[in-house]
Amino acid sequence: MAKTALQFRHNGSDVAIFVDGGTNLLVALRELIGDMTPKFGCGQGGCGTCSVLIDGELHLSCLTLAETVAGRSVETLDSLKQGPNLHPLQRAFAENFAAQCGYCTPGMLMAAKALLDRNPSPSRAEIVEAISGNICRCTGYEPIINAILAASGGRVSA
Amino acid sequence: MLELRKDIFADERDDNLNEIGKGTQRQDMLGHVTGTSSYFNDHKLQGMLHLKVVRSTHSHARIRRIDTADAERSSGVRRIIRGSDVPRNLNTLLSLINFGKDDEPSLAVDKVRYKGEPILAIVADSERKAFEAIAKVRIDYEPLPTVFDVEDALKAGAPVVNETYPKNAFIYHDVYDHQKLRFGDADAALATADHVLEQRYQMSPIEHAPTETNGSIAAPDTNGRYVVYTSTQALFFSVDTCAKILDVPSNTFHFIGGTVGGGFGGKVDTLTEPLCILGAMLTGRPVRYVFGREEEMQYGPPRGAERIYIKDGVMRDGRVVARKVRAYFDSGAYTRLSSYAAVKCAAHLPGPYTIPNVYGDVYCVFTNRTPATAMRGFGVTAMDFAIECQMDKLANLVGMDPMEFRILNAYRDGDMKAHRREAKNTALIECVQVAAEKAKWPIRDEFKRASSRKDGRGSRAAVPRTPTDTRGGTTAPTQQRTTYDRQPTTALREPPREPPPPPPQPPRPAAPSHGAGRFSSVFGTRRR
Q: Sign of torsion, CA A51 A53 A58 A64?
């Protein structure tokens, strides 16, 4: 099968790969770039654990054709940490017990980042709306909402 | 917020608690929030191949012919694995603890027993090429009559689902087709009760739906062993199951796991590892076998369905005097862990209540449904749902408040349980009292004053006279057993195992000085 050359920015660095026609961005990131932070959960846009930012906007990488990110900027969870320091959202997730099995966490953090980037002080309702496309089967939504509230300086409810 | 009620059972506990009531960070939290926790599928190995299985499209059918000629010629196919390639193609999970007979093939040979049962495994260069080859496999089925209902499955003339158990019920200790509990004379008590309430309860199968699907990666190691990355919840269990099925010593494998993307019981069945390792053995390459979401939802084992009939006798003053239960645990086509679930189902009778006459029959039943497995309290959960619904209905029937009704019937320290064990360290009354208080649910003073330590023992500690069942001529199997799947040809390789000697009785611990007295099973003998 013919391969297509693809260049884009991945977490601030320029990358170039060859993809088969039909390859989705999740496979390109995990198997060709080697960034394992976005996860496969359903492959059909139902769970949100593969969420990444494309030019700052939240997208499901499993439903995004890899070729469509040519020349654009893709950010995954691997971009959040600054050197040895955790991003405020990562710190808030850790401090508020907002991860159990950890599998939805990469997608949750990217959805939270997309929200805070456009709305630094969201209400609780806006946070709930922002993570509504992300499934946590350990049912830890409350600590996740509290973590995002904490990261935005909002009041955390008990 | 966590609130410790230190006023309850205060004299049984000092407050020298090191961890309880204090927050402790998870060891894996840093990995989780940075995305660096290593799940099985986060390993990319050189030259990795991909395994997918061909699944049955029928719920019950004889396999007449499997034609793989076109699939073998399909681009990128490295190996097609059949049941005859599996060294020991018959297993049951709990055989590792000598419980139950081998009843489930890794790959079906002569017959399929549920829709989605694996028949062939195809190892190819990519998942896509494996799927393309699957589309070229032709299987000639002869559909057989199906049974999906637990009670229908036990009727005479029902289709035999699993020839290992021709009566469609799991056989305990080679003799008993159900779990039986008899305590007192339930029929006599029902005959003299003021009210009798009989109800039917049904719990559906429930899918765990973990965010990470089941899967594993197996690769030849540099020392003749195989390294296996797996999503399993039961790593050592899985090692031994693979060693048995593949007929090699368990030190052939180096299993790596522990970071599980949600399990809840759905990742204990060793679903992918045996075929994945066999693929690596037969191709000499790393092989990945991971469920897609549809496979996980449709063919991943669910919590087993249960049907429960409860017939209770209750007096006008609210005392439950008899509880008669008949329950059916839907195991699906194979045993997996359901035999154990039915034991737990019976062990939970009659709930946390002191009822002088209890009668229970619990069956583990085979049907042409997806095999069931563990899920959070399996066996107990559905029985508890039925019992507590029943308790509300009984309270309503005698015109009592449901909280007070539970306190009245709750077991107390020193009571005899239906299993002929003394009730110790009971706390249902206190739990109900606190729940009522938290919910601002008014209960009368006499129920607020009730205590698990008072009013038990005495006549409540007696084992009542219990009539033995009249042997109503146990019905012989209604079907002739036929042989389908190959029996393991290695039967002689292993000498019959002696039952393990009973473990030595642990020395009775001295009364502990710490606060674990009341609720610890280790120190549960402290009081009385």
A: negative
